[in-house]
Design brief:
single chain, alpha+beta, 6-stranded antiparallel barrel, 16 strands
Length: 272
């Protein structure tokens, strides 16, 4: 009987140590601030998305040195109860793009499906920057928009300066060059180039649910994959002209789809 009690005690200590490690790894004691603590008062926009005959070679260094620091890798963990912490947590990942800052916080655009809780009771969002610094993120209150597939991700600043992108409030014209930046298949800070093809409505499917998006998505030829969702699409002036959220099969070819910047402009004006 004494030996059984010892085994139970050892098992309890090991389980407690594992639980403490999980709490530390996922920062489960993090307190999400109240809206008044992180509320944004305004966002500025650019009004021109013309390329001005800029070549990719002319902006490549700036993309690699500065723009890439706006790209974030988002890890989404969710669970229902404390006992699930002893099992691998539900996990998905995606991308996000920093568009605003205050003295204490950065704000990033992403897709609502990237930060979805998948009907779980608890969620942990880990934001990782280009140098692998990790931050505990949370969703801006009231920012989830399922029709537009948009959300705002917030995280506290540390001692690592990150770049804030400008968003244009005009459509990029068809056949204009553009760049997609994201983390497809967890391949961090992936850059692809292409052109704006056309604008057209699409339906998407998430967990068997069909979502009809009542806006004309920007279809373009820059390659994207799962994990690119929430990544920025920029013009050659290095302004955000869209946010990746889906891909579409057209005549046997895969075309990338992005939420166009005028829709993002309207969304942010209504949300902030």
């Amino acid at each position: 009987m004494k030996k059984v009690t010892q085994y139970i005690f050892v098992f309890f200590i090991l389980a407690l140590m594992f639980l403490i490690a999980q709490v530390s790894e996922y920062n489960l004691l993090y307190r999400i601030p109240s809206l008044n603590e992180y509320m944004l008062n305004s966002v500025s926009f650019k009004s021109d998305s013309s390329p001005n005959n800029i070549s990719y070679d002319a902006i490549e260094d700036e993309i690699n040195d500065r723009i890439i620091t706006s790209n974030l890798f988002v890890s989404n963990y969710s669970y229902d109860n404390i006992f699930e912490l002893f099992l691998p947590l539900e996990y998905s990942s995606g991308s996000a793009a920093i568009f605003a800052e205050t003295d204490d916080y950065y704000y990033a655009l992403t897709n609502s499906h990237v930060v979805s809780m998948d009907n779980q009771a608890h969620q942990v969002l880990i934001v990782t920057d280009h140098e692998d610094h990790e931050y505990r993120g949370f969703v801006y209150e009231g920012s989830i928009n399922l029709n537009l597939d948009l959300a705002i991700l917030v995280f506290e600043k540390a001692n690592h300066e990150l770049n804030v992108m400008d968003i244009t409030n005009t459509k990029i014209p068809m056949n204009y060059p553009l760049i997609a930046i994201g983390n497809p298949n967890s391949n961090r800070d992936t850059i692809t180039t292409g052109t704006a093809l056309y604008y057209e409505r699409i339906n998407t499917i998430d967990d068997g649910v069909v979502y009809t998006h009542y806006f004309e998505a920007l279809h373009h030829s820059a390659e994207t994959h799962p994990g690119s969702s929430g990544g920025m699409v920029i013009d050659y002036n290095l302004n955000i002209v869209g946010l990746s959220f889906a891909s579409v099969e057209t005549n046997g070819n895969t075309v990338s789809a992005a939420i166009p910047s005028p829709m993002i402009y309207d969304y942010l004006r209504q949300t902030i």
